[in-house]
Amino acid sequence: MNFARIPRENLHDILRRMPKAELHIHIEGSLEPELIFELAARNGMPLPYATLEELRAAYAFTDLQSFLDIYYAGAGVLQTEEDFFAMAWAYLKRARTDNVRHAEIFFDPQTHTERGIPFATVINGLERAVRRGREELGVSASLILCFLRHLSEEAAFAALEEALPFRDRFIGVGLDSGERGNPPEKFARVFARCRELGLRLVAHAGEEGPAGYISQALDLLKVERIDHGVRCLEDPRLVARLAEQRVPLTVCPLSNVKLCVFPDLSAHPMGKLLAVGIAATINSDDPAYFGGYLNENYLATFTALPELGAKEAYQLARNSFQAAFADESVKEGWIRELDDFFAQQCSG
Ligand code: ADE
Ligand code: ZN
Q: pTM of this prediction?
């Protein structure tokens, strides 16, 4: 593919239109302020914010924990199966407009079961949206159950037990929430059990936590992808390992800036990660809180980093399909569509 033939002024249009996958989206992080107000009213729940503007003004985060406090409070308005459906359906419609062909969607059941919401309510609502998204929007989607790492190993085992009757509704498990002080090793036995069950494995690591947590996630949890992983750059040997083993990183640039991992996008290491051969992808993390969905993450990152051009756009979209937990034949189909799209761009 002769990427040099693609004029730079076409880049934004290409980023918007190219087919892509999203592999790191917390569905509770897609809950827009308008829907929070709507669900709070419907469910008769008082909010500590009088207006949408007041709620939005609270979205000024200094670190991961300052975000998580607001994110878990926002998720408190989700009460019924219909609420979970509405949230996921809104995300999938939005993903379609960003030309997302496939989404792997995280959900945090413990955030809800701890409030007395049955696991079935959560998964039934999400699953209904996923099915409808496939049928009506042509967007493929799968669910990944995340354990909250600030809670105990025992709580994670209990969450897994509760989820097992619904084993066919989710493809894998992940690990999220406050990273500092909650190393992957805390969940080694839970992940070993999930592995025996044939679940796909991912974990957040090296977002705020040290590079050593990335190695732990690989060696002790045996994850297949790392969520975030940007702090790998502090350890050259780890960078070499990630590149050599083609371990995918699901990187979330707007999230990284909002949570003060980097001061601004011009300081973001996306260009460097790709240049050293790491299988990085772009994702939105919690789009309702961090100022943008998937295409906004692509556009803002490419605007801020002049070293990213058409070749990197292709590479990122290709990485997203290759790193997906889907059948090889399906992934090949998506990559063929991507190749056709870029061949057309290169031929003028
Ligand atoms: N849960 C939702 N978003 C998260 C993030 N960026 N890091 C850890 N846990 C999360
Ligand atoms: Zn995340």
A: 0.98
